[in-house]
Amino acid sequence: MFETLINQTGISLERLAMLCEIAESGSIGAATAGNANRQSQFSRQLAELETFFGGELLDRRARPFRLNEAGRELAQLARMSLAGLEDFLARSKGASTRLAVGAGESLIQWLLLPAATQSKPGDEVFVFKNLDTNRIVEGLHSGQLDIGLVRSNAVPEGFHRGGRLDYRYALFVPQKLVPKRRALDASLLSDVPLAVMEGRGELRRAMEAHAAKSPLHVAMECSSYPQIATAVASGYCAGVLPEFAQHYLPKDVKMIDLGQAMGKNVLRTTYLIWSPKTELIKPSLKAKAIALAKNLGCSP
Questions:
Q1: Tens-digit pLDDT profile for residues 229-259
Q2: Are 143 and 280 members of one domain?
Q3: What is the CATH number of the domain that holds 118?
Q4: I want to staple 224 with a disulfide (CB 3.0 to 4.6 A). Which of 58, 88, 105, 230 is the partner?
Q5: How far is CA 189 from the centre of its chain?
């Protein structure tokens, strides 16, 4: 059994792990961080794999060199196999197993990190990766991630769901920015300086539509909700944030419900998901995912 793989030159666990490293980093140069000796070693090992498999694994027409389709396919196969062996070895020795979780920065900082601290230290090594939805789904397919938190309309067909997380966005306004004798309602959205997410995301478009008669006063653009929260906490401006951000803001910051004014535009449903293929090689994954979902307060 496996005669074509065993005791053959050109293939080894080390070479396959190297291929996975290139795939995750994006190129040989990125994987070796400019180290000339390692770059030479990786190039040699990659050439040996190409000789063994009888075809190119690297697209040498691009700069920097990146894996071609065959290289990416082999890297995915290798990653799943090596991850399964590594998980089995750790469980056999009673050591901590690695749990890679992909989510947005706000979910990581405000929900996942507190949830992880409810686990017994040493049970697993949590690896949190701040990624957008598309990259989370890609990571789950490739095996780079074990678990992902993604919006409801992005869950791939056939993936397992460990729990549902519903939350809303609200307007957070430092008390000193509220005009005197002004009601604390959604109309403040047009009357206070705001920190907003850069780009033209769904929530920002909804905010602008709500304030169409009086344009938003954008004072700052940020790349994450924790950045907006920092600006709000300083008293510099207001911001629209997930409602759970309230626990990490000063008491003089007022939370204003936007549901009546903006309806479903401020509602979000997120699922904790994982790939059935990953569960096959990591039998304990389902139990870990369900435990994490419970600590997050997810509904079934």
A1: 999 999 999 999 999 999 999 999 999 999 8
A2: yes
A3: 3.40.190.10
A4: 105
A5: 29
